[in-house]
User: Fold this.
Amino acid sequence: MTEATDLFLDLVPDRVLAAVEAAGLHCNTVCYPLNSFENRVYEVELEDSSRVIAKFYRPGRWSEEQILEEHRFLGELDEDEVPVCPVRPFPDGSTLKRIDAIWYSLSDRRGGRAPDELDDLGAERLGMLVGRLHVVAARRPAPARPQLDADRYVRRAVRAIEQEAELTGDVRHRYLTAAGALASIADDRLAGVATHRIHADLHLGNVLVRDDRLFVLDFDDFVVGPPVQDMWLAIPGRDPDAKRQWEHFLAGYERFRDFDPTTLGLVEVLRGLRMVRYTGWLVRRWHDPAFRQGWPWFGTPDYWRRETDDLEEQLKVIGEGSSMVETAQTATATAEVIELDNSDYFFDYEDKS
Assistant:
């Protein structure tokens, strides 16, 4: 393979199989690409007909130590029986290999589906799962992983937008002004907030339902940040139904871990940070043909007008304050003290007694 770029130009199926075999495993000639834009992910069949997931990390995004911190975090969660998909050791005991400039790892294949939406029971169960995840997450630091802050989520994105995006005129001025205002607000609101390791991208697409059990997938974006970031993406709405589900989510969460209700005031700020970060991500990846195919409308004048309008509207929402704090206080006040058993800890538990 030639020197790798972040376009993965040489990562064809034969090279994927060769990488897995070079790590000490024997493969059949079965290799399927799976849906992933940021990295490259393949389902590979081994000689014994079992299948593994081979993940090839985008070059230049994470260092070796940052990737290994992700693997250690997953290992800790798995040891505590938090349902995740841990990295599978290679025959020599390592979890990370390299083919030329591309790091790669293996994990066991898990079937299932992403939930289309949550009902009240599903919200409570997901809250319990995230609570258990955060109990483990808070035990150790992650010195190599970045912080969730305005520098990473907004200012870095703005630099890419200023340099590479076709954004001009009044819309450019409005967008950059709104992004700068958001960054300043985030600096102020996030100051002094308790943080620990978090998943950071916990939308329902990264939740797997299998045999009535919930699994959390894809810790590739894990950072150090406020726990509430792992909550709002699963229940992103602001309507009465969403607020009711927040109450169920928090009731489940607090069975395992206390939650600071005042941090729900960060939800709209975090939503704004994600909006800018997402746009910056697309700008930085626009040289990749896969992104041009996946987002054909990106970068048009209409796109930038909508993004600018949405970001300015988000600033107004932030300025008006959030009623989510009241939601958290309601959930805490009405929560019952319930004695937990195995059926609460393990969603697929069956009493055999």
Q: What stands out?
A: The chain is about 45% helix and 15% strand. The first helix runs from residue 13 to 22. The longest strand covers residues 27-34. Confidence is low (pLDDT under 50) at residues 331-353.
